[in-house]
Amino acid sequence: MKRKYIIVPALAAGILAGCTEEQPNGGGLLDEPAIVQTLVAPQEGAEISLDNIETLAFEWSAAEWTGYGDVEYDLVFDYAEGDFSEPVYILPAEQSGVTKIFIPKSMLDELFYAGITDNKERISVSWAVIARSGSGLYSELSSEIRDLILTKTPDPAIVTDLLAPANGYDVVMKNLQESETVDFSWEAPVWLGEGDLSYEVVIDRPDGDFSAPLFKSPRVSETSVAVSREDFEAILETLASDEYSVSLKWAVNSFAGDNAWTSSVSSALNVVQQAKPFETGDPLYIGGAGSETGQQTVYIPSDYFNVSLADFEDKDCSNKKEVDYNYEIFTKLQAGTPFYFYAGYEDYFYTVSADGSAFKEISDASEAEGTVPSDGIYRIRFSTETGKAKVQIVTRVYCRNTSNATNIMMDYQGNGLWEVNNASAPFSAGNTYKFMVTAGGEGDGFDQPYGVTYQGTLSQDADESLWYVQPVRKGGNVLVYTYPSGLGSGLHVRLYLNNDKGHYTHEFLNWQ
């Protein structure tokens, strides 16, 4: 067995043979070294279950000693084949002359786990006492050595970490082919008991306790199971639900011999058996070879912007009256390549008309009509209720320092995100600023200011709503922000005209 040493604390003195030394301070020859003759408790061969104790007392008789100074004792342990020349555990008594030590269960657990071999529930150790006398000149092992058996019921092998699929994962039956599977995986628990572990995946109703699951996989020794389309069809048949999506949960049972445990956590799972009818407010995504495929549009209901502000822009630049839109996206498009929008699992498809003025449903992506005349970044607005749309190119986005009338251009990062990281940008705390979007072509071009949505003082821990941006009326100091204190040199700011943060917003990245 490979020896593991747990020395608390490590001692400088070894186990020394008896010898004759001069007593300190010229006191003559020392007596014979102090040696513990008798161990008192635990008894020889005692079997101690670590499941049933909090502490264990070790006691011995005091060693005879008439020499200089006190006798100090160390309780020492070694494993069955050891001779205490290199004890695996050394525990000094707290005070000189103490002949009884209470060892907490945690220390015995360390000793137990360090000594585990093939038998994972039982180890044999030996214990003795070292007497240190003559101010540390002598260090002698007790005349008696006792054996001790430590037993421990292994901790339950309960799975605590489910890896995949992620919590809330959607199993879309339409996309799951006959030969395909959904892989379930988890972290193996620590098991120190007898026998090997095996596992099974169980799937149940959200209010179930897995005692009678809807599905139970065959047992496996690995930490993953593949669940087939046929398995999910059987679950749906049992439930006989007409809902488009069925909510379930899954867990893992682990087994060792006659023992069985259910994981301490479960994970939500949805089986989508039919297309969900599209409703206004549902997520819509852009698609097409020349688009930023998968970018989510921003749903803008009537309360998305703070329209109660006197300077909220409701006509000229926001086109709120010209196009009564409820979805918007800032995105990059390639010229002449059709783009479209889709909902959910691509069961519903939509397009803007060839002239960009209408929004309508189509049967699939091949019917997409919308294109743009040149590569660039575009703002697309449409209404799922009125069917109106508007497509305008965005030519620049910049941060406008309204205190000193300077513009700091921002770079497009993709998916509706702009950023500027300018070490020499002219700004200082207390100055005011807003954001500007230049868009449109001849006849419908505009400079749209984006400013304050909710008024308040910006700081690193300010409420997120104070960072929101929305279209505001033109004017130098209309609903502008004030640069917060605590920023470093230069200017590093991001403008989110997308859904990443749940609202159009901005943030600084150069806090000190």
How would you portray this structure in words?
With 512 residues, this protein is mainly beta. The protein has four domains: 6-151, Sandwich (Immunoglobulin-like), CATH 2.60.40.10; 162-272, Immunoglobulin-like; 284-393, no CATH class; 394-508. It contains two helices and 36 strands. It has helices at residues 105-114, 229-239; strands at residues 6-7, 39-41, 46-49, 55-60, 72-79, 89-92, 100-104, 122-133, 138-141, 146-151, 162-164, 169-172, 181-186, 198-204, 215-216, 224-228, 245-256, 259-262, 267-272, 284-287, 298-299, 327-333, 340-343, 348-352, 359-362, 376-382, 389-401, 406-409, 411-414, 417-422, 432-439, 446-452, 469-471, 481-482, 491-496, 505-508. Strands 21, 22, 26, 27, 28, 31, 32, 33 and 34 form a nine-stranded antiparallel sheet that branches. Strands 1, 3, 5, 6, 8, 9 and 10 form a seven-stranded mixed sheet that branches. A hairpin with a 4-residue loop joins β23 and β24 (348-352). The longest helix has 11 residues, at 229-239. The radius of gyration is 38 Å and the shape is elongated.
Total beta strand runs? 36
Low-confidence segments: 1-29, 315-322
State which percent range the strand residues make up.
35-45%
Oligomer state of the chains in this structure = single chain
Mean pLDDT, nearest integer? 87
What is the 3D shape? elongated
Largest β sheet strand count, sense and barrel closure: 9 strands, antiparallel
Class derived from helix and strand content: mainly beta
Residue share in helices?
A: under 10%
What is the architecture of the largest domain at the second tier of CATH? Sandwich
Tell me the number of structural domains. Answer: 4
